[in-house]
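Possible regression after last week's pipeline update?

I re-ran a chain I had predicted before the update to compare outputs. Posting the input and the new output here so someone can diff against the archived version. Not blocking, just want to make sure nothing changed silently.
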Amino acid sequence: APRGMPQIEVTFDIDANGILHVGAKDKASGKEQSIRITSSSGLDKSEIDKMKNAAKEHAAEDKQKKESVEVRNQADSLVFQTKKQIEELKEKVPADVKSRLESEMKKVEDAMATNNTEQIKSATESLSKVWNEVASQLYSQTGPQGQPAPDQQAENKAADEKGNVQDASYEVVDDDKK
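New output (post-update):
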């Protein structure tokens, strides 16, 4: 599972009497919960309608909470990945760029402390933009497969030293056919 996602093992068991046993175990903490569901007379129509109405009333609130959690997770993940990349590329990242990234990461962490979804979004977008600029600069300095990019001046100098190059067409003559 991706970082931050809990790994939960859920088991379902139906015995001969039609009783359902459901168990859930968090693999990380080892906490376990279980429930036994027996057949009952069921819910009447009014109870079902009441539950549906309650769900509709809280749908917007639930959607807002879901969005807030997703934004926080995205921000946390971006900060983690950025720190990891800085650590891996520390000798290639100039000090001023590193301090700029750290400043943006601090803004994201501060926004997360406020629990303001819009602030978190804004700070995350800002960090993402800065990281994308830095990454494109770093990757433009290296060519394919990690090779240094060719120096443009050296390329131009080599072309000048070769002189005039002309394309010519030719025909291969096979001596055996004569």
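Follow-up from reviewer: compared with the archived run. Residues 62-143 form a domain with the Substrate Binding Domain Of Dnak; Chain:A; Domain 2 fold (CATH 1.20.1270.10). Marking as no regression found.
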